[in-house]
Every structure is written in C-alpha cells, then in structure tokens.
Specification:
Cofactor: Zn(2+)
Pfam families: Csd3_N2, Peptidase_M23
Bound molecules: zinc ion
Number of domains: 3
Organism: Thalassospira marina
Protein name: Peptidase M23
Keywords: Hydrolase, Metal-binding, Metalloprotease, Protease, Zinc
Radius of gyration: 29 Å
Amino acid sequence: MSPKHQDAEEIASVAETVPVLEGSEKNSEISSRQDTVVLEKGSNLMAVLTGAGLERSVAYNAIEALRDVYNPRKLRAGQEFDLVYASETSGDTGDLLDTLRFQPDAETIVSVSRTDDGFSASTDKVELTSAPNVSSGTIDQSLFMAAEKNGMPLSVLMEMIKLYSYDVDFQRDIQPGDSFEVMYDDMKNAKGDLVRHGDIVYASMNVRGKDYRLYSYTDSDGNQDFYNENGESFRRALMRTPINGARLSSGFGMRKHPVLGYSRMHKGVDFAAPTGTPIFAAGNGTVERVGKVGGYGNYIRLRHNSTYETAYGHMSRFAKGIHAGSRVKQGDIIGYVGMTGTATGPHLHFEILKAEHQVNPINVKMPSGRTLTGKELNRFHATSEKLQKQYAQLSIEGAKVASAD
Ligand SMILES: [Zn+2]
C-alpha cells in the first residue's frame, strides 16, 4: 500500500466526510464552547475539522501550525480531538477556533492555539504520579512463565533480568524452586489510569538458596544506582555478557576446535548472534588495540584498569570513533558481530584477561563497582529499610486482596 498523500493542498481537496461529533450540542449562548471529535477510519484531520464546522482556511492554518511539533500523518483512526472555541463567538460555522488539543499517546499532549497572527503548536508531557506495585513468584519451569503466572509486567521482568545479569547467568543458574520478588513504580495519570510500568525500586532473587537483594538508591549527588544490602553497587566493573540476546555457543576450556579440528584450549567464550549485532564495551576503559589480529579477525582489546582487560574477536566492523587510545564507557558500542578470522559462523569471541592471562568470564569474581561508606551508607540503609518495609506492606495487602475473592 502506498502512503497516503496528505499535503495541505490535497487535504483541502479531499471529499468531505462527516466525522462523529461527541458532545457537540450546539450551544447558541455566547460562551466558550468545547467539542470532542474523533478521527474516523479513512478520514483525515482536515475532514474532521471542516466537518466540525471550521472554515477550511482556519483548519488549514491550524494543521500547518501543528506540523511544527507533530506529523499529522501519524494520526490513527480513533484519535480524539478537543476543540475549544473563543468565547465571544456564537455557535455557527463562523466559530473561532481557539485551541485544538489531543493526546497522541498516554504521555503527550499536543496543543495548537490561536495567536495574534495565526496558530502556534506546542507539546507537553502529561503529569504522571508513581504508585508502588509488587510482584513475586516461584520458578517452576522458567522465569518467564513464573513472571507471567504472577502477573509481572514484561517490561519489569526485562529490567530485572538486565539488573541481575551482572551476577546471575539466567541460562545456567536459574532452576525450579528459585524465587523472586520485585517492587516497581506504576506511573498513573490524573485520572488514576495506569500509563506505564516504571522503574524497579527493590528486587530480590533467591537463586540456588542464595539471596540477591538490590535497592534503588539516589546518592546525595543525585546519581541513581542499585546496591545490595551492604551498600555495594550492583553494577560490576565488567559485564559478563557484552552483547544482547546472544546465545552462549561455546564455553571456556578444552574443546575440539570447530575449524582446526584438533583439541585445544578455548580461552574465551563465544556468543552466537547475527552479523551486525552490536557489541558493548564490558567496562569503562581505554582501547588498547584495534585491527586485524590473525585468527581473531577484526579484534579489539580494552584495558579497564591495571589488572583487567577484555578482548573481542571476529567483528564484522568496528564502531565509529574507535581507535587506539580512545576512551570507552561500559555499554558503549565498540563494534559489530561478524565472522572475520577463523570462524565457522557469526559470533562474538569474548575474553577477560586478568594480569594478561585469559580467565573464564563465567567464573571470574567480577570486580565490583562503588561501595557506599560513611554518611552515604547510613543514608542508604535508611532508604533500603524503608523500601523493604514498603514491599512487605504491599505484599500483605496484595495477599488480602487475592484471598478476598
Ligand atoms: Zn571463541
């Protein structure tokens, strides 16, 4: 299907369709008047506005102004528009449009308002308030199924997996009987409707009998991060998996080399992923080496501190701006998955080097990030206790509601 042409001239020539008018009882009294009109399937904004009684020139100017902040082509059938008319006019087709207002999504308000010389458009964010919500479950078959069964929103689950990926290998560590609990913010509008699920503020995972608790904490400088109960940052100095959505295809250790055919030590881990998948810097550091290196193909080595380095092989290409000496931050894209060098298929070969020797990224005890101390630690403990209490309270209330029906 070819895209609809909705240039202003063409809109003006579109056959007039009569839009549904809601609450448009004609008010002959001289007072400010408001209509709500709906965009019908197959119609367009010009037809909606003229159908509501606006003169073509007025509708045209309002739509032209709208284009500054919103592309009218993105409007969908069912979209409602509020039309506010100036108070000094009576309710006939000569109505003077004062404001056209609509909400293209739950968090945005678009307004087109009359000015001295036409119209001007602006966007505003809908004001949202947060209300904490909780979810918990025990893993039976998989984390996904447990989350679904317990009504945990997918976005919250994904955030939890991301937060825990520094410490928990979700493919290998999780097993039946493991459990989780999480508290997150539900973002609501003025009517109290849920607009979206917000950030996790507290989570706990019990994996193979070990508790991993984390608390969102904003320090006195305003930096938010997640910490365990001892005030140690959950973020590690290095990521174990510097790629998203990849499958561990070959572990660290002795193996029969898939290309060379004989057994030898595999000094890294392989993550199978399609060519072009972004590869992240596993930690903050400096690019030590970038270029072609034998069987590694396109290769990058990063130095993170005096002890740790990471290396990445078989890349299809390097990210822009990556050259020896450049600084990178954890999570920055440094290159893309490929199969350069000795490789049978596209994958990332990833190494962690400790004192210049490759170590198993799965087992290496990751150097931790920041640890809170002194006043900051005291402040953190007050926050974490509050979150813990709040979680307990909400889960009791939730249990009462659940057992009430
Ligand atoms: Zn490898």
